[in-house]
Amino acid sequence: MASMDSNTMSKPKRDIRILLIQARDEHDILIQEQQCFIERCAIREDQLITINILDQTADNIEAITLQEYDALMIGGSGAYSAANDYPWMNALLSLVVRANALSFPTFGSCWGHQIIARALGGTVAYDRELTEMGCHTIYLNDTGKQDILFTDFPEQFKANMGHHDRVTVLPQGGIDLAFSKTQPHQAFRIKNKPIYGTQFHSELNAERERERLIAYRPYYTEVETEELFQQILEDLAETTEVDGLLEKFLDIYVANGL
After folding, report:
1. End-to-end CA distance of the chain
2. Would you please indicate which residues are annotated as catalytic (active-site) residues?
């Protein structure tokens, strides 16, 4: 695949094939996440090929041929921390390393953002004290304002999220694009490559975020009362600039071959 500095390859959006990596125990959320990516990428269902990594052996993951697809996306995980090791973790990290070597269009959302960072040499930490849940304000830094993916975003915008892990050190070649009041690495990219991560959920609008938070309510024990939890749900942003981010990523780096 082409890097951001070339314009030698392109593909009609109707023909794009996306590989989505998931790590989900709950079947309903597995399907919900797939629908979220279909909606936010503005693609047909048959254009999204999904792999639940929990069902795969390391050999199966290592056998994935990225060139069969046009983009790699990595979603959320529920109970699986990006800071921990699992039987499939090294193979997943190796897949990201291969994508990086190929300058393959890759986008990580929340857990996927953390996986990309860890795979390429960054650091991820489990940090309940800086948990973000619900709708929060994100601020672009000067580099983010100039980035092709965020150039039409306002300097600050709302995004929906829910996470305990966070990136504490960017990977080699990682460039910060955005931050929040408590976390400096809300979005980053790999220099001169079509590889991005967002700590916020780029695949979730307010309706889908509400579904996800309700499903994972038992994990957020720091939200001590149902009254506070309901307030978080009510404060979700119905429409934000983030709603079109994944579609824009595909338009720029796959359909236009940048």
Report:
1. 9
2. 110, 201, 203
